[in-house]
Task: inverse folding
């Protein structure tokens, strides 16, 4: 078994423009996903919007530079995640395919020493 | 004797590499280690067979030597740090220590005494993760090789990495050979293969045959790779030769192997048929001076009738399709190209099946004038409805030019010319040039040939275009 982080990447502009019923439907779909895959889920979370993000970079001299905003400027930002446990990548992908992500998609990555 | 042994080892390399590596990978639980052991076994064969003669089953001999070496290394245990439990199939039996003597240990109870090494991890308490390799003769092979092919062609790997890994692990080509075939630096190819192997182990791409539900998606990736390998050999993207026969041969070998491993799959039948029917025309594609000959002018006596017959035999099966069969793509299925193509297109027919049917129509025509272009046009219509792409449209337009005339085809080509996907595709310009030539607009044709020439990197094709521009040169 290994642990995989399933990161949900969304286009926030699309969410902002979406009807509230779309949001409500998404909540229902996530609950259904959790109910169906509870045995594999080790953690999960929804992130607040990217406008709330703060990035910290090393300044190269032992200090840090703290800046407003997300780490990488892309249209799609990480909006939430599931930490799952799976026998192999195929099993992880089968679970990740069920993660609701109507405004984007998901990225699956193994955790190092995830077993 | 020396030559005979060398030839036997070379032959075993082509025919048995996938066998041997696949079986060894299960024991080694590590693709890199397995490769080392297999290479070692081939090297030993060169020496050993000179003394003992070539064994009756070279693949079995090589597998035994390679797996025994893998076990030996595992006993030294330090391999465990690589921690690759995923390659191991815990489902079945034991490792036979005496397989070299030809002992066939079929599916008996796990033999803990004979098993070397220690658990590589994963299942706590199990302790027998290294097990799982059963020397049960030839029957154990197909599954192993399928595992290997599906692992190399996993959709989580980039397509170029899938091609490279398949050539390396399934065909046994070296990084240098693959790099040469695809015209990249050896270091680049080496890095690509290393990255792909790392992804397999670190992401946990499993060494197994996909479940039935996953098969359609996964088999598609495999067939695409085999097709790419063949296509890269059929017309080299670059260089002084029109073809790279070693790659075309490997592509054909892979297709034949897939057919043997998955005899029921219609798309596998379709791909093999397509490659056989295409390869059959190979001897006529260049003349004795090395110049390209269009199909129109090819000496059909040079076409390999045996390959054509073999391909034609597969076409009905390919067109029968997977999903309950289909009778709508008619015509070529019966042998003589007679029937039309049904309006709905074949329900279960795959892409390679339809492409094979096109190749079959050519293969069946004794002369260029006998080509059933109506049938081919209908097949391209089916292909486009199901798998629309600008290249399919371009091929359809060529067929149309022989049904409705070059002027009508040119009109459709003008529309297609705006497609950015074809902006640097040499065959768009060369098709336009041919159509212009056939309508007698020779000045425009010359300009189009010039354009095609600018996009062609293969010198045999370039020569051909040059001769079209200046026929007397």
Result:
């Amino acid at each position: 078994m290994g642990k995989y982080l399933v990161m949900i990447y969304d286009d926030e502009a699309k969410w902002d423009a979406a009807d509230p019923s779309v949001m409500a439907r998404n909540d229902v779909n996530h609950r259904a996903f959790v109910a169906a895959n509870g045995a594999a889920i080790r953690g999960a979370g929804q992130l607040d919007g990217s406008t709330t993000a703060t990035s910290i970079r090393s300044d190269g001299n032992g200090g840090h530079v703290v800046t407003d905003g997300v780490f990488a400027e892309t249209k799609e930002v990480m909006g939430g995640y599931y930490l799952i446990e799976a026998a192999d990548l195929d099993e992880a992908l089968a679970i990740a395919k069920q993660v609701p992500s109507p405004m984007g998609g998901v990225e699956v990555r193994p955790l190092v020493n995830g077993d | 004797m020396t030559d005979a042994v060398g030839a036997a080892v070379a032959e075993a390399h082509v025919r048995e590499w996938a066998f041997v590596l696949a079986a060894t990978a299960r024991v080694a639980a590590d693709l890199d280690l397995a490769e080392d052991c297999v290479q070692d076994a081939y090297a030993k064969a060169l020496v050993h067979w000179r003394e003992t003669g070539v064994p009756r089953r070279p693949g079995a001999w090589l597998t035994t030597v390679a797996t025994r070496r893998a076990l030996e290394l595992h006993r030294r245990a330090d391999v465990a740090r690589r921690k690759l439990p995923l390659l191991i199939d815990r489902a079945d039996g034991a490792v036979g220590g005496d397989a070299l003597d030809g002992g066939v240990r079929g599916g008996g109870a796990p033999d803990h005494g004979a098993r070397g090494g220690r658990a590589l991890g994963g299942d706590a308490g199990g302790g027998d993760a290294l097990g799982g390799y059963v020397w049960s003769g030839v029957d154990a092979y197909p599954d192993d090789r399928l595992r290997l092919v599906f692992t190399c062609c996993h959709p989580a790997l980039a397509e170029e990495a899938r091609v490279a890994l398949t050539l390396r692990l399934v065909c046994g080509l070296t990084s240098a050979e693959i790099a040469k075939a695809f015209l990249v630096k050896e270091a680049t190819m080496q890095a690509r293969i290393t990255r792909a192997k790392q992804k397999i182990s670190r992401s946990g791409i499993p060494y197994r045959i996909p479940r039935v539900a996953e098969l359609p998606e996964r088999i598609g990736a495999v067939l695409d790779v085999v097709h790419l390998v063949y296509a890269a050999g059929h017309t080299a993207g670059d260089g002084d030769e029109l073809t790279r026969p070693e790659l075309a041969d490997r592509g054909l070998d892979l297709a034949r192997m897939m057919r043997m491993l998955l005899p029921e799959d219609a798309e596998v039948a379709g791909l093999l048929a397509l490659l056989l029917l295409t390869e059959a025309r190979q001897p006529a594609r260049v003349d004795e001076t090395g110049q390209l000959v269009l199909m129109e002018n090819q000496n059909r006596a040079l076409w390999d009738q045996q390959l054509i017959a073999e391909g034609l035999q597969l076409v009905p099966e390919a067109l029968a399709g997977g999903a309950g069969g289909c009778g709508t793509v008619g015509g070529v299925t019966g042998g003589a190209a007679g029937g039309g193509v049904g309006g709905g297109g074949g329900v279960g027919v795959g892409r390679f099946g339809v492409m094979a049917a096109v190749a079959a129509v050519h293969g069946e025509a004794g002369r260029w004038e006998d080509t059933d272009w109506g049938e081919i046009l209908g097949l391209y219509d089916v292909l486009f409805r199901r798998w629309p792409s600008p290249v399919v449209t371009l091929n359809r337009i060529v067929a149309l030019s022989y049904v409705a005339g070059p002027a009508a085809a040119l009109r459709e080509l003008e529309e297609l010319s705006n497609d950015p996907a074809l902006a640097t595709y040499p065959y768009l310009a060369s098709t336009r040039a041919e159509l212009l030539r056939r309508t007698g607009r020779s000045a425009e044709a010359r300009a189009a040939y010039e354009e095609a020439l600018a996009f062609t990197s293969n010198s045999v094709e370039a020569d051909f275009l040059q001769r079209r521009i200046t026929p007397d040169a």
Q: What stands out?
A: Chain A touches chain B at residues 1-2, 4, 86-90, 92-93, 109-110, 112, 115 (CB under 8 Å). The first strand of chain A starts at residue 2 and ends at 11. Residues 2-110 of chain A form a domain with the Alpha-Beta Plaits fold (CATH 3.30.70.1060). The mean pLDDT of chain A is 92.
